[in-house]
Write a structure and sequence with these properties.
The protein is mainly alpha-helical and about 260 residues long. The protein has two domains: about 100 residues, Helix Hairpins; about 140 residues, Helix Hairpins. Helix content is about 75%, strand content about 5%.
């Protein structure tokens, strides 16, 4: 099997491989255009899903904070009840004081517990204000969540329609591309895929345009152009690394630069 593969690769001339490679590039470029038609929708959908998840988390956090504030309010109310009970007890003891010293001590305790009640009431009011703010935050976040959920549904529907319209075309083109791949040796095909992956416009093979590389548009020396036209070996651009072919092999008419 390995010998058959090696023999097959030897039978295929450089010209045949380059021609097949350019045909493959043409098909893959069509798939790229289909993806461009879909635009940024998949990314937008993904970003919206992440944002919605974040909004749910934010609402859960607000609710947890409200519950924590509520528990603190309960604790402060319990302190108030304890201070009120102490005040009642101290007032009863005032009726049985034996000297001014005991009277002053009890009066100070009553005053202290009264201040404790005022402080607890202040804390309760602060917690109530914070809980109102958190409730308002929840309401605003839920409104944003509802809006984002609605937009997400619209984007998903739009994406599904576009995918449905283009899926059949993309699958057909992919099948054509798979039929071409065996006509290219494994090493060249792997190199082409690597170049294409790193290229901004997805072009792994280009033809010469106006004496320049069709990918980066850097000028190609006449001697190298002659080598490219001979189809004896695979030549890459020294600037961008793309595989280069002559216009004739790509099936296009050569452009003659204006003098």
């Amino acid at each position: 099997m390995a010998n058959d593969k090696s023999k097959n690769e030897q039978v295929l001339s450089v010209e045949e491989r380059l021609k097949s490679l350019y045909q493959l590039q043409t098909l893959l470029s069509q798939i790229d255009k289909i993806r461009i038609v879909r635009g940024e929708l998949p990314l937008e959908v993904h970003d919206l899903e992440d944002e919605i998840e974040g909004l749910h988390t934010r609402i859960d956090n607000y609710k947890a904070e409200i519950e924590e504030l509520r528990q603190k309010s309960v604790a402060e109310k319990e302190k108030i009840r304890e201070s009120q009970a102490k005040i009642e007890k101290y007032k009863e003891q005032l009726d049985n004081v034996r000297n001014n010293r005991e009277f002053d001590l009890l009066s100070k305790e009553i005053e202290f517990q009264t201040l404790e009640i005022e402080l607890c009431e202040k804390h309760i009011n602060d917690y109530a204000r914070l809980m109102d703010n958190k409730a308002a935050d929840i309401s605003a976040t839920e409104e944003t969540l509802s809006d984002r959920t609605h937009i997400l549904q619209e984007k998903k529907t739009e994406l599904e329609e576009i995918v449905s319209e283009t899926k059949q075309d993309e699958e057909r083109i992919r099948e054509q591309a798979k039929e071409i791949e065996p006509r290219i040796d494994a090493r060249t095909l792997q190199a082409f895929k690597r170049i294409r992956k790193n290229a901004r416009n997805g072009l792994g093979i280009v033809y010469i345009q106006r004496n320049a590389c069709g990918g980066c548009f850097n000028r190609i020396p006449p001697q190298k152009q002659m080598e490219i036209k001979m189809h004896k070996k695979i030549i890459v651009c020294e600037y961008c690394g793309r595989i280069m072919i002559d216009p004739a092999l790509a099936g296009v008419e050569e452009e003659i630069p204006a003098k």
